[in-house]
Design a protein that fits this description.
By secondary structure, the chain is an all-alpha fold. The protein contains 15 helices and no strands.
Length: 467
């Protein structure tokens, strides 16, 4: 957004504040309709979970060897989306990417909401969710201790650590903007926003410490995200299951997480841009940059697929090859090829500038990638478990998703959407301070270009003769 000398500096900054805070006052049919739809989906998920708690895990059709299926698929899918949000925001901040402000706040909110959604699935998968505290190490009179080699325990520590760091990163970025909302609010809302703003007044000393703390948190969050999602990949790599036991799991999962996160950012930003009047900030140019990142990560994921298949073929391991062929042209063939098309072929559309700058194309490709990443997780989990080392224990007809699992999946999507709508209602959806800083930097660059041009013109003019 440029001023082009059309308005005084103060008016431009005031307009930015008004534009970003306007969606918090919007309560149109789209918001209430979305809230009603997502709440209904949550109720469907809650009812499905009630049936499972009442009748047992058999309601989900889980049996040997398919003891991990849709619930762990959802966990890995949501945790991948959650990890990518802070990773994208932190890395782009550290590299000072000029288009970061358009989607950093949405990506960070997506992180927190997705990680709370992911955290529910290990509890759902336990069956007896009321005994989830057994996963936590605490002194007790029964002399019981957790098994730290269990993937469930690894997940508890990974999710908890990442949730704490992401919450701090999200909240710290909100502080200057929440202070603006606090100054405009009344009653209990002013008190609540005041607590979140922690006495922010925008003084020079506060900004100095704020920017230092934010840079430190960004520096901590970026490698932490990579390490935490690597821990999630070790849930699989540490098991001697065909298709899981691989050293490529950690980078493979991190690349997939970034791809799914970028796709989800596009999926969320496009409706926000259309319904909240943010087109002058979430511009086509900035969407173009996100699409380029999505293309790069799509190529990385495609290379990871190729590497995995090549190593399986080159190893001449009969069990690994049989497991892979069961995915390619066996029980999970249609899931495998849908995953390949959505994750490897669909992002290739972003090689073309016209596709990157076309809103319907961006939205469709982002949805396809989200579907493809879920299918990838399902193929990894169910496809490997259905064909292990002992043919006697192979699942005779693969695995069929049950209605209870579908209902809980629908509930998780509704839960995510419901909380994201509340975020749009109660918090600024774009970082006001960063947008103003970008305007200032843009104006300085324009003035520098104008001064340089004027200096060149001055040197080019003929000098007057002396005497």
């Amino acid at each position: 957004m440029t001023t082009n000398g059309a308005a005084p500096q103060g008016d431009v900054y005031k307009q930015v504040t008004e534009d970003v805070l306007r969606p918090m006052a919007l309560r149109g049919p789209w918001w209430y309709g979305g809230l009603a739809l997502t709440a209904t989906m949550v109720l469907i998920g809650a009812y499905s979970e009630f049936l499972q708690l009442h009748y047992g895990m058999g309601k989900a059709g889980l049996m040997h060897p398919m003891m991990w299926a849709v619930y762990i698929t959802n966990f890995v899918w949501w945790i991948g989306i959650a990890h990518s949000g802070t990773l994208i925001s932190a890395f782009l901040y550290l590299f000072r990417a000029p288009f970061r402000a358009a989607f950093s706040r949405a990506a960070e909110a997506m992180t927190l909401i997705a990680i709370t959604t992911a955290g529910m699935f290990p509890l759902i998968h336990l069956g007896r969710a009321w005994r989830a505290y057994w996963l936590l190490p605490y002194p007790n009179e029964r002399l019981l201790w957790v098994n730290f080699r269990s993937p469930l325990v690894l997940d508890v520590f990974a999710v908890t650590t990442y949730f704490i760091v992401s919450t701090l990163f999200f909240w710290l970025g909100l502080v200057p903007d929440v202070a603006v909302v606090r100054d405009r609010a009344r009653g209990w809302a002013r008190t609540a926003y005041g607590l979140a703003a922690v006495g922010w007044e925008g003084r020079d000393k506060q900004w100095k410490h704020y920017l230092m703390a934010y840079a430190i948190l960004a520096g901590l969050a970026a490698p932490l995200v990579v390490s935490v999602h690597s821990v999630v990949s070790w849930d699989f790599a540490s098991a001697l299951v065909p298709g899981w036991h691989s050293t490529i799991s950690a980078p493979f999962f991190v690349a997939g997480a970034i791809l799914s996160g970028l796709a989800m950012v596009l999926t969320l930003l496009i409706p926000m841009r259309a319904t909240m009047g943010l087109k002058q900030y979430v511009t086509i140019d900035r969407m173009d940059q996100v699409a380029k990142l999505t293309l790069v990560m799509g190529l990385v994921v495609s290379y990871s697929y190729f590497s995995e298949y090549f190593v399986t073929w080159y190893s001449k391991d009969g069990v690994e090859i049989t497991n892979l062929m069961n995915k390619v042209n066996g029980t999970f063939a249609w899931e495998f090829w849908l995953m390949t098309v959505c994750n490897c072929i669909a992002p290739l559309a972003f090689f073309f500038r016209a596709a990157r700058r076309n809103i319907p194309t961006l939205f469709i490709v982002s949805i396809l990638i989200n579907i493809g990443m879920w299918m990838e997780r399902f193929v990894i989990v169910a496809g490997s478990l259905s064909h292990d080392y002992v043919p006697y224990s192979w699942a005779p007809s693969g695995y069929h998703i049950k209605p209870v699992e579908v209902g809980i999946c629908i509930g998780s999507v509704g839960w995510f959407g419901f909380l994201f709508l509340l975020f749009c209602r109660f918090l600024p959806v774009l970082p006001i301070a960063e947008l103003k800083r970008d305007i200032l930097l843009e104006e300085r660059e324009e003035h520098a270009v104008e001064a340089s041009a004027a200096l060149r013109e001055g040197h080019a003019q003929p000098q007057p003769e002396v005497g």
